Amino acid sequence: MALTPIRSSLILKVPETNRVTHGVELPSFASWRSMPLQAEKTVVDSPRNNERNGVGQVDDERVAHLIEQLKVRTVELEEANRELRHVSHYRSLFLARMSHELRTPLTSILGFAEIMLDQEKLTEAQQRFCQKIQNSGMQLLTSLNQLVDLSRLEVGTGELFLQEFSLPETLRETCAAVARQAQKRDVRIECNPAPEVTTIVSDEGRLRQALYTFFAWAVSRSRAGQCVNVYAELLDGPFLRVQIDDEGEPIKDMMRVFDPAETPRAGKTDLNELGIIVGRRLLEVMKGTVTLENRESTGLRTLIELPAGPPKA
To answer: pTM of this prediction?
Structure first.
């Protein structure tokens, strides 16, 4: 009997999991096969990353250029604003000094016109001429005073001189000062302060000037036969409220009333409109406000509110 040799084969199976040999973790066979692919992928993506880096560098340069331009423009604007402030300051000083030089001879002209009007031997034509001189001189003096006030407010000389005074007396005297203008236009002006209104603490000179300005403006808005009513009351705070009601035409655009660019209109100088701009500035210096509103019936209501006592510490 012949013997047939037996052929045996040894098959080793390598597991897909990682093996640990002498404490060292070896990568799996699957990870070995994937390593060239990962390297190849990295090599393929590298040109795109370079392109992105180039675009980012261009954006950074553009932003840096815009920031540099913004800095240059800011310096130019600051220089222009500084120059404008200097020009405004010099203009205000010029107006103040020029007005002072003009008011001196103008006061003499008004004084001699008043003396001539007091003479009884003047003919009717001579009285009319003297009256014309006086009216024109007063108009010019009012305009000069308003220019001086504007120049002082722009320069910043807005110091207040607080004192206690009788408000009803100030209202009556201011209404009496406007009465002459109202009489020429055949307009009545009535002043009715509330009974509790007695004395207040404020800048009497500035308040008197502001009230005169708005009283005269209300009279100039009224027609013959109409009436201007003035009412004053004290509010909590204490605050003073002065209400001026006229029967003139309503105002369509309130925002343009206090806009200097809108006065004069159509080439006509209106001193009352210039005066209310000055009056509003004066009230702002006194921490006050002025509000305009059309009345339901007809005319305009002007509300002036300002502190009626010394400022609280």
So the answer is: 0.60
